[in-house]
Amino acid sequence: MPVVAHETPGIWLGQPAPRRPAGIPSWLSPGPGEWSPLPAARFRDDRMHAGWDRLHRMAAAGNRDALLFLTLLKSGTIARPAGYFAP
Question: In terms of DSSP H, where are the helices of the chain?
């Protein structure tokens, strides 16, 4: 019995077929015509929290500059920036 290869255009071998969206909008896949950029305040807050998270990860990994900065921040030598949330 001959082996028949089924070809699906646009799909690489071994890759799953792309799924259709479930119709649930998200930040990554908004519904048609509903996309708009994040509000400036939300974008600013997201970037600020990402920066603080990175600083804490660097300190946890042993980065001396990050450890020194957090030590000075916690001791009060450096004023806490507005919106800073300590874990």
Answer: 40-60, 64-75
Please give the single-letter amino acid code of residue 32: P
SS3 state of residue 28: coil
Contact 55, 69 (CB under 8 A): yes
With contact defined as beta carbons under 8 Å apart, do 32 and 40 qualify? no
| Cα(54)–Cα(64) distance, integer angstroms | 14
Q: Are 25 and 34 in contact (CB under 8 A)?
A: yes
What is the per-residue pLDDT across 39-86, written as a single tens digit (0 to 9) for each? 888 888 888 889 889 999 999 999 999 999 999 988 888 887 766 655
Cα(61)–Cα(86) distance, integer angstroms: 18
- Give the global pTM: 0.49
